[in-house]
Amino acid sequence: MNTTTASRKGWWIQLNERRAARTGMLVLLVLALPAVVQAQFTYSTNNGTVTIMGYTGPGGAVTIPETINGLLVTSIGDFAFYNGAAPLPYILTSVTIPNCVTSIGNDAFSWSSSLTNVTIGNGLIGIGEGAFADCGLTTITIPSRVTSIGDVAFAYCWNLTRVYFQGNAPSLGGPSVFQADNNATVYYLRWTTGWGATFGGRPTAQWNLLGPWIYTTNNSTITLISYIGPGGEVMIPSMINGLPVTSIGEGTFCDCTGLTDASIPNSVTNIGEEAFWHCTSLTAVHFNGNAPSADTSVFSGDTNATVYYLAGTTGWGTTFGGRPTALGWPGTWTATNGTITITRYTGPGGAVTIPSTINGVPITSIGDIAFQSCGGLTSVIIPNTVTSIGVGAFQFCTSLTSVTIPNSVTNIGYEAFFSCSSLTAFAVDALNPVYSSVAGVLFDKNQTALILCPAGKAGIYTIPNTVTSIGSGAFQACSRLTGVTIPDSVTSIGDIAFRYCSGLSSVTIPNSVTNIGSEAFESSGLTNATIGNGVTSIPSAMFMYCGNLCSVTIPNSVTSIEDAAFNSCTGLKVVTIPSSVTSIEGDAFSSCGLTSVTIPNSVTSIGNGAFSWSSSLTNVTIGNSVTDIEDDAFYGCTNLAGVYFMGNAPSLGGSSVFYNDNNATVYYLPGTTGWSTTFGGRPTALWFLPNPLILTSGPGFGLQSNAFGFITSWATNIPVVVEACTNPANHSWSPLQTNDLTGGWSYFSDPRWANYTARFYRVRSL
Question: Which CATH number fits domain 41-206: 3.80.10.10, 3.40.50.410, 3.40.5.50, 3.10.20.30?
């Protein structure tokens, strides 16, 4: 007999000693260690333990071994799998970290954008700074022993949505642990401590995890032998580690006075004696299959409990295990003030009609994630007692094809039907006062707001011209959508509206649209996009991860390109930034395919990492109004050869503006100021233009001491003529002064400028 336990050996021994004393049985604890598969690692040893320092294998799915040369692996060192300045020759997709590892070093896995899955053993105590920064993680589970997490440990994990903590809130090394992880929610178990409304800057929510189990395996089936969780509402799993749970052993829940509600899967065929003995707070036990084998002592002492069974199942009488029975709902619920909220559905799926009452009490709400990941659910009819559908209520129900919404529903939560990839239609009762449906798409009552397109909708969709707003996530994950026509009636497009629309190849945003939410087209299949002139900013992450995007039209109405707007648009080779833009924010064009870029004179600041990791970028022209370039702006542009400045030297936000740009030279115009032999760590050189130029920036331009002045820049020791006229249309230019451009520039001053109603200047060569 093999016994497996995740934690708390002392609990296991204590519970089984008590049980042995009561039953005369002896239970033996046997721990089996998994086989070690050693990959190719570099490492160091200290006091008989191993620290992983690097990896030289082929990549892909990597399992870190428990031992190397007979020594226990206890830590992963700083930068062990770091994929930063010098990209590694392998691509890491998943990592399994064994229980023996207690610490993960600084930047251990950072910049591994293909790393989407990490399994952390329960021995981990500390996670270093930047350990998983810029990874491709979507979810991560933090074991209960972790007490510290370094700053920026998970920063810039753009796809991270859920962080699950199994223990108390650990200490954080700084405020930026989850920086830029704008979609992430932190989930914690209800019996743990230290949590608030936010953690690390991200919102928190209670994680309704199945309680910890101790169990045995026999003939490829699982028998539960002890539950060591806190109680409350508990769903017994149907599978553990891929094996079916078929038995609940003797006294598994004995003396669990905090247990209030239990749901038992249809895989269970046997329940041992006194399995729920003296669970004095237990009020409901829900069975999802036929009556299992059990005797009358199963619920001994549970004087408040009722056993609920499903219609169509067999073996039930008026009592079971000594408690009365009643027809019930396949799952869990809560009752408050005479109404019921369904908290979880555990039935087999198929076509489900939700009842209007349970035990005569009306069902008014479908709770958050109540049907989440119910893969067998094909259709659902919601009764007209329900007024609210919770957040993520039906998300990831991949077989769901239709939903009937009654006239009573007045609230549908965020991502309630996210990633229901087979869903083709919503059917809304015509009398519903808040919602309506047209051609299977969910709208508000008057069809002015498009709320949700079913994820299974295919082909080209034309939005009705009654619509003025496209809601947050309205088309999210509509992967079969190949085209969408947005009418001139639309004025706003919500956050993540078209995210993950992998089949959408082009979009034209009409001039009527004045507001677009963040990540609106993130990770879509767009190859070209045209933005109307009603838009004043390209919002954060609007086209992030649109790897196929090769053409985008930015109108002259746009004044700012926000953070990560075009991040990882690897197919974008050329972009025209209009002269209306004044700021380019952090990571705006990071990891793009750009080969050259001209930053217009209107731009005053370039954000942190704005063009970083754009390895195809060879030259950049920077306009004369840029006064500030933040750190890492051109970090890792390894093929950058020339950076051409039209104005004076701007201030730099750090020493890494041109880090690893080993081929770059900074060019500046004669007559501009603030330059030395190097700039941002790169060598400088004079930039001689083919024709003379009047510099229109800097303190020397304009009215100076009752004279109008400017600098002429061109080539060294070449004479130029400054000419003036009162009307350039009549081509009557008069020479004012001939200057030799000593050092490539000269200053001109006109004390007679005030004698004219209008005065225009130009320079030409002799």
Answer: 3.80.10.10
Count the neighbouring beta carbons within 10 Å of the beta carbon of residue 558: 18
Structural contact between residues 109 and 95, judged by C-beta atoms closer than 8 angstroms = yes
* Cα separation values, 766 from 737, 742, 762, Å: 11, 15, 13
Pairing relationship of beta strands 441-444 and 449-452 according to DSSP bridges: antiparallel
- For the stretch 281-311, pLDDT in tens is 898 898 888 999 998 899 999 999 999 888 7
587-631 residue pLDDT tens: 999 999 999 999 999 999 999 999 999 999 999 999 999 999 999
Q: Which residues are CB-neighbours of 89 under 8 A, at least 6 positions away?
A: none
Name which of 739, 742, 733 is nearest 762 in CA terms.
733
pLDDT digits (tens, 9 = 90+) for 100-128: 899 999 999 999 989 999 999 878 999 99
- pTM, two decimal places: 0.61
CATH topology classification for 2-29+210-317: 3.80.10
Encode pLDDT of 49-95 as tens digits. Answer: 999 999 988 888 999 998 888 888 999 999 999 987 667 788 899 99
Contacts of 605 (CB under 8 A, 6+ apart): 582, 583, 584, 626, 627, 628, 629, 630
216-231 average pLDDT score: 81
Whether residue 170 contacts residue 150, with contact meaning beta carbons closer than 8 Å, is answered with no
Task: Domain 559-687: state its class.
Answer: alpha beta
What distance lies between CA 207 and its chain's CA centroid? 18
Q: Give SS3 for 364.
A: strand
